Amino acid sequence: MTEPGPGDNQSDMVPNSGGGRGRRGVLMLIPLIVIMMAILFVGLTRNPGEIPSPLIGKTLPAISGVDLDGNTRQLPNIGKPMLLNIWASWCSACVAEHQVIVAAAKRYAGQVDFVGLNYRDKQPDAKRWLSRLGNPYAWSLQDLDGRAGIELGVYGAPETYFIDAEGVIVGKKIGPLNVEYLRDKLVEYFGINS
What we know:
194 residues, Glutaredoxin, 7 strands, single chain
């Protein structure tokens, strides 16, 4: 290295003291990365079908409308436990769960009311679908514009609400039901054994 001359800027010759800042910045990112990874890990371990609902423990909102046969209907039904199933003819996952609901409606007839909420569907399509696959519901309320779904906090079809005899929502399942889950929840929520 040569000696600086009279016209040379000596500040150019001093080593960069900003290197510590870069290292400190990286060290400050480590806790942030750890926190983000922890949040991701917790999120990935949760069951997406069991998203908490603010309606759990509250009375089912009063919903009235017309069923698929044109009759005026009102929810909630008081006096008997109810399974309220959100379904649609356009919903492929609804087809997968439908036979579970058909079998359960037969098995638990008289103990639980099975009611449908036909979500954003056309009446002729819905009726044709039930005619082809079987109709497990005492009745299905039409929700053409999705307003009832908004009242319930529906994410999409299928979803199922478990409502006790007093009209209080005790459970909610997002996604298709299976035999074991439905049986376990009927025991847990209503004390109904098969």
